Amino acid sequence: xxxxxxxxxxxxxxxxxxxxxxxxxxxxxxxxxxxxxxxxxxxxxxxxxxxxxxxxxxxxxxxxxxxxxxxxxxxxxxxxxxxxxxxxxxxxxxxxxxxxxxxxxxxxxxxxxxxxxxxxxxxxxxxxxxxxxxxxxxxxxxxxxxxxxxxxx
Length: 153
Ligand code: DQA
Known about the structure:
Number of strands: 5
Radius of gyration: 15 Å
Bound molecules: 1,3,4-trihydroxy-5-OXO-cyclohexanecarboxylic acid
Mean pLDDT: 96
Order of helices and strands: EHHEHEHEEH
Shape: globular
Largest sheet: 5 strands, parallel
Helix content: 40-55%
Structural class: alpha/beta
Strand order of the largest sheet: 2-1-3-4-5
């Protein structure tokens, strides 16, 4: 069974109350719940993980590599703009991933326009609030189905 891991970075545990004018009013639990429904409908296994710690996120990516997780969706939050360690974890494990953001980082402060991950990602989806995750999940499912098909050919 295809396994997709959704990783949420720092401060995303505060969704719902954190700057709702930027990030919306949905909680992380409600986003994960919706992803769970989509996973069930599509016959894929969902894992979710949130951490405020860079090291824990790196370890979780390494663990996903060891467990042969098929795909990762990551909202690296502030670590998007700072983390060589998370970049190196993706380079080390080679797990395909989508970078996602609730807000449109290109319409905000200049420092948010730099990502240490975008050039390694299959794609980047941002600016759609909670729907950024749902769109990313749909894209991940399509990507995984295509990979299975290619392997069978
Ligand atoms: C974010 C954008 C980042 O710049 C910010 O640090 C976050 C959230 C987003 O989802 O829009 O914490 O990744």
